[in-house]
Protein: EamA family transporter
Amino acid sequence: MKNKNIAVPAALASMICVQGGASLAKRLFPALGAIGTSTLRIGLSAIILFFINRPKLGSFNKKQWLYCSIYGLGIAAMNLIFYMAIQRIPLGLGVTIEFVGPLFLALVLSRKVLDLLWALLACTGILLIVPWGTGEVDLLGVFLAFLAGVFWAVYIVMGGKVSKVMDSKDAVSTGMLIAALFIIPFAIWDGQLLKITPLLFLQGLGVAILSSALPFSLDMIALKQLPAKTFSILTSLQPAFAALSGLLFLQENLSFLQWISIACVVMASVGTTLFNRRYEM
Structure:
């Protein structure tokens, strides 16, 4: 009971940080682009976490290195592709579409009929939020958001696995380091980081702390205590936080139907969380 009471607030705090950081990151796109911003975020996060947690890399066994590597690749791909998506579509829309990854994971791992009903309600919300018939939807942006969702599911599964075989601080620090090493070649190819200024660097540092260093550490606390299925559907609150963040900080307005669709996703999250608390705590 006590551990799960800590895990759920940790997951919620992580989501607030991520979406606030995403809004700040999107302001950097005109100057650094999606690849440059993502690289700055992950690279600075890796440095911060490495020096704070000082993981003992030489003590890891083969299984720990394997899990950390897949976890790190999931982080890098999830973030890079998602930033490329929200460069083309609104933040709230991007996060809601991206949630197809955790939703599919929840469906696969479901063992109760009620879980399936909550997941289907979330699926309805995701289908409603995309403006399919308006001609205004950026199909490449939508595809990238779906693809980011696949790696979001990888991140959830591997985060849960790696947190069971090694210390959480070591896992997240090493995972971020591997993510940084993976994404740096893309930044070199892109070349946008050459345009960085001291002000942009400070803004990137804020993004790194809000979007990676702090939330990934909080996620480790949650993933260590919650089943992957529960964590997956709990994260359906992400679209609501994203839409509010986009509205407040980026002036990105959504239609009434799109807000209804987000409400469907949120209701699915609340319903499944209450159900799991009743039967699992």
